[in-house]
UniProtKB/TrEMBL annotation:
UniProt cross-references to PROSITE patterns, sorted A to Z: UDPGT
Name this polypeptide is given: Glycosyltransferase
Lineage, top ranks: Eukaryota, Viridiplantae, Streptophyta, Embryophyta, Tracheophyta
Pfam families reported in the protein's UniProt record: UDPGT (PF00201)
Family per similarity comment: Belongs to the UDP-glycosyltransferase family.
Keywords: Glycosyltransferase, Transferase
Enzyme type, top EC level: transferase
Molecular function GO labels: quercetin 3-O-glucosyltransferase activity; quercetin 7-O-glucosyltransferase activity
Domain of life of the source: Eukaryota
Matching PANTHER family: GLUCOSYL/GLUCURONOSYL TRANSFERASES, GLYCOSYLTRANSFERASE
EC number: 2.4.1.-
Protein's organism: Nicotiana benthamiana
Length: 470
């Protein structure tokens, strides 16, 4: 039988793994496409411990997991800025192993016909050339953020980076399509570096040069949200597949859309759904900073006081290790604990898609990771954005200024501002934000419905992968 055989290799952190597994499942719905999903050993172990992923994927005879070391010692940190350990580990350790795996024909029963990997894996371009197969990059961050990455050389050439002077509110001129929108503070966090030889800046410049050379570029977004930026991309890489929001695309495509599609690497605490069931409609603010971001203890307390002073109900994901300098929970002022008992719920990891879809949720204080942002958009939940790093600075600007789906709190963490923004979202401008959220939610749903832009792009992607059969 002639089959297409795709090797999918995500960056081994929660967001990209989640996205790529969803794409893998969508591809597996087509029998003539076989998928080998290459996970890091670390991620695979955690996925298996925390979800039913192994059982779930058993129903696809055309799917298999393989694992590879990611080069990060188990006791090395993988969150905060240390997430760079993961990128470096993959480059140094996993990439030579991948090359060996592909050149030695270890992938069976069908030889590989396509590589589909994270956009940050610049090494994949050489490997694909060497093996003689097409390469598709899937960049799981937002196109609006990735577009600023691609414009980095232009920004440097024009002297806009490194910044001259300290004014972060100066508008940026050399990101086509974002004139008048993006200030210095809204550029990706690494743009604040003063040394252009910084390894992150160098890696991003390299990424920009590589992704435009692949056969295609896949995005988890939809035309109704990022149409103008996608048009900018098409000037450099004509073959764009914009197939998101992937989580609703997958749910629509499954014959039993109610079944779990969780790919969490922490155990989800389902008890929060019972707690949400008891709260009034649209009364709860969901608070989460995702899988990588961290905060100081001082910031943690400012947010907590802001929540208490706003008198809002809240569901807060306090991921283990996410608050630097927090010793014990008895470190928390009594008044905060007392308020939380009355109107709050704290958990260590949430079933986030389900939480955001719950009728009691009225807002989301988020770090603006791309998955979280999209998941919030799909449920029409207004956001307070507190970006941590890299792409999140751009996403939060787009949420606040372009899409008008919430408020951007970047670069501050003060209890009075938290309180003010929570009140704006949950009370003062609630109707306005919910209305805008509904409009965008409808566009998201239309895009994955039959005939919608993401539906058509996924169809085209499947067809193009099929044609890559040997
Ligand atoms: N997530 C989750 N439960 C939580 C917090 C996050 O399932 O308690 C999921 C969330 O739904 C999203 C992913 O983790 O799909 C986080 O990805 P994102 O791109 O938002 O941020 P990152 O973690 O990469 O910074």
């Amino acid at each position: 039988m002639r089959v297409a055989h795709v090797l999918i290799f995500p960056l081994p952190i929660q967001g990209p793994v989640n996205c790529m597994l969803k794409l893998a499942e969508l591809l597996c719905l087509h029998q003539e496409i076989h998928v080998t999903f290459l996970n890091s050993e670390h991620i695979q172990q955690r996925l298996v411990n925390c979800t039913d992923v192994e059982i779930r994927f058993k129903k696809y005879p055309n799917f298999k997991f393989m694992t590879i070391p990611d080069g990060v010692a188990e006791d090395n940190p993988r969150t905060g800025d240390e997430v760079r350990n993961v990128v470096k580990g993959v480059e140094d350790v996993s990439s030579p192993m991948l090359r060996e795996m592909l050149t030695s024909g270890l992938l069976t029963p069908y030889s590989l016909t396509c590589l589909l990997v994270d956009g940050i894996f610049t090494f994949a371009l050489d490997i694909a050339k060497e093996v003689g197969i097409p390469l598709l990059y899937f960049d799981t961050i937002s196109p609006c953020a990735l577009w600023t990455y691609l414009c980095l050389p232009k920004l440097i050439e024009a002297g806009e980076i490194p910044f001259k002077g300290n004014d972060l509110d100066t508008l940026v001129n050399n990101v086509p399509g974002m004139e008048g929108v993006i200030r210095r503070r809204d550029l990706p966090s690494f743009c604040r570096e003063t040394d252009l030889n910084n390894p992150t800046i160098q890696r991003i410049i390299k990424e920009g040069k590589h992704i435009v050379q692949a056969q295609g570029l896949i995005f988890n977004t939809f035309e109704g949200l990022e149409g103008p930026i996608l048009s900018q991309f098409r000037t450099l890489c004509p073959n764009i597949y914009s197939i998101g929001p992937l989580h609703i695309h997958l749910k629509k495509s499954l014959s039993s859309p109610k079944t779990s599609t969780s790919n969490s690497i922490w155990k989800e605490d389902m008890s929060c759904i019972d707690w949400l069931d008891e709260q009034p409609k649209k009364s709860v603010l969901f608070v989460s900073i995702g899988s990588v971001a961290t905060m100081s203890k001082a910031q943690f307390l400012e947010i907590w006081y802001g929540l208490m002073n706003s008198k809002t109900r809240f569901l807060w994901v306090q991921r283990p290790g996410s608050v630097i300098g927090l010793e014990e929970n008895n470190d928390i002022p009594m008044e905060l604990s007392k308020y939380t008992k009355e109107r709050g719920c704290i958990i260590s990891w949430a079933p986030q898609e389900e939480v955001l879809a719950h009728p009691s949720i009225g807002g989301f204080l988020t770090h603006c990771g791309w998955n979280s942002t999209l998941e919030s958009i799909v449920e029409g939940v207004p956001m307070i954005c507190w970006p941590y790093f890299v792409d999140q600075q751009v996403n939060s600007r787009y949420v606040g200024e372009v899409w008008k789906l919430g408020l951007d709190m970047k670069d501050v963490c003060d209890r009075d501002i938290v309180e003010k923004m929570v009140r704006e979202i949950m009370e003062v401008r609630k109707i306005e934000f919910l209305e805008r959220g509904r409009e965008m939610r409808n566009l998201a749903i239309q895009s994955v419905n039959e005939g919608g832009s993401s539906y058509k792009d996924l169809d085209r992607l499947v067809e193009d992968i099929r044609l890559m059969r040997i």
